Amino acid sequence: KTKRDDSRDRSSLVLNPGPGEIAALATACCWTVSMMAFESAGKRIGSLNVNLVRVALGALFLSVFCYVRRGLWLPVDATLHNWIWLSLSGIAGLTLGDMCLMRAFVLVGSRISALVMAFVPVLSTLISWIFLGELLSLRDQSGMVLTVTGIMMVVAGRPKNNGIERNGYPLKGLLLALGGAVGQSVGLVFSKFGMGPYDAFAANHIRLLAALAGFAVIFLVTGRWRAVLTATRHRPGMGFTALGSFFGPFVGVSLSLYAVQHTQVGVAATIIALVPVLIIPPAVLVKKEIIGLRDVAGATIAVAGSVLLFL
């Protein structure tokens, strides 16, 4: 039983977020920064190269951080249970899931891919119920429905990307986007199961090391190492990748593990999924995008749903 479960025993209508909810919101903020940084990096050195380098840099940041904080360069104090399930989580979420999503961006565009990814909270809730036996309260379920609805409104209202302007979308692209959503959901659930009371940052270190090994095998088979070496010489691209790696694989993913460690997976996944809403202000201020009425309405609904999750 988590601290959140204890707080829910009190029927209060005041904001009473636990550490899990706060960590989930912090994750969404970090991922908003990393998403913008990786978008800029991907345009310069290619999204597949960014995927590999971001995981490598995230693992490096965690090595230094864990040495300063725990006195260990590597998570050698983890149990076999930790290593097995967290490694599976890293490969499912950070390697296979992200690769599916990146390919979906090419086939159906980032808007449709993000729309499919909005179902991550629902999938996470379903998988955590089957695998962990977690059940959400009626208030949590209502908050999740409102939040997902608002996110879908925001994403559906954004301009089409990648030049894809068609009435129908290839089934392969939609399935790859769904694969990305399933990978992220499975990654969260396996992380909670494999982590237990173990340190969240060290647990993320295991996930990143496993994901890095997965990418290394894929790049070795496909012969893309030369492209990676060329990409690392592009200073602006590497600068954006380093920024995104700090707020994404290092801080953001670690906070997401801390979030699922201290609250239900479905609740954490719903709050984390607010990234498309949180990215609206920087899109207006930095990219000078025009925000429509649907964006405002969707953001309002999503925030209202998130408030229910914080009660």
Provide the descriptors you would attach to this structure in a database record:
mainly alpha
Could you characterize the architecture of this molecule?
With 311 residues, the protein is an all-alpha fold. The protein contains 14 helices and no strands. The chain has helices at residues 3-8, 19-45, 47-70, 80-117, 120-132, 138-156, 171-195, 200-222, 225-231, 235-262, 265-272, 275-278, 280-285, 293-310. Helix 3 (47-70) crosses helix 10 (235-262), helix 4 (80-117) packs across helix 8 (200-222) and helix 6 packs parallel to helix 11. The model is unreliable at 5-11 and 161-167 (pLDDT under 50).
Structure in a nutshell:
The protein is an all-alpha fold and 311 residues long.
Mean pLDDT: 85
Oligomeric form of this entry?
A: single chain
Distance between the ends: 17 Å
Low-confidence runs? 5-11, 161-167
Number of discrete helical segments: 14
Structural class designation: mainly alpha
How many beta-strand segments? 0
- Helix proportion range: over 70%
- Secondary-structure element series: HHHHHHHHHHHHHH
Largest sheet descriptor: none
What would the principal axes of the Cα set say about the shape?
globular
**Percent in strands:** under 5%
- Rg over alpha carbons: 19 Å
Secondary structure: elements and pairs:
Layout lengths: L2 H6 L10 H27 L1 H24 L9 H38 L2 H13 L5 H19 L14 H25 L4 H23 L2 H7 L3 H28 L2 H8 L2 H4 L1 H6 L7 H18 L1
Helix pairs in contact: 2-3, 2-10, 2-11, 3-4, 3-8, 3-10, 4-6, 4-7, 4-8, 5-7, 5-11, 6-11, 6-14, 7-10, 8-10, 10-11
